[in-house]
Amino acid sequence: xxxxxxxxxxxxxxxxxxxxxxxxxxxxxxxxxxxxxxxxxxxxxxxxxxxxxxxxxxxxxxxxxxxxxxxxxxxxxxxxxxxxxxxxxxxxxxxxxxxxxxxxxxxxxxxxxxxxxxxxxxxxxxxxxxxxxx
Length: 134
Hints:
Helices cover 31% and strands 3% of the residues.
């Protein structure tokens, strides 16, 4: 029973205040972040080592086409698409089965709506093909 008067009903569950419990044992459960700078450096070194390992290949993964995003809000911009169309590969004289083996992404569902973007992606493929070491 509580005392008389208008008081807070005692229902205290807040025992872990600032990492201190009775005896201070809870503090050992805190995750420290002292290795943040070292971890950042290690990640950077790993990225550089991977780039050196993959030397002639593109580090960013497969070569992707340049496309216009959908909707009026974004369609004036350019971004990387999922893969080159079969028509683009045909114009660049690359077979669709060979393309993934030499680091080119292929998207058989995409279609070309204008000649300008088709030509831009064909030029991108030809440039990549000229730099390719096989």
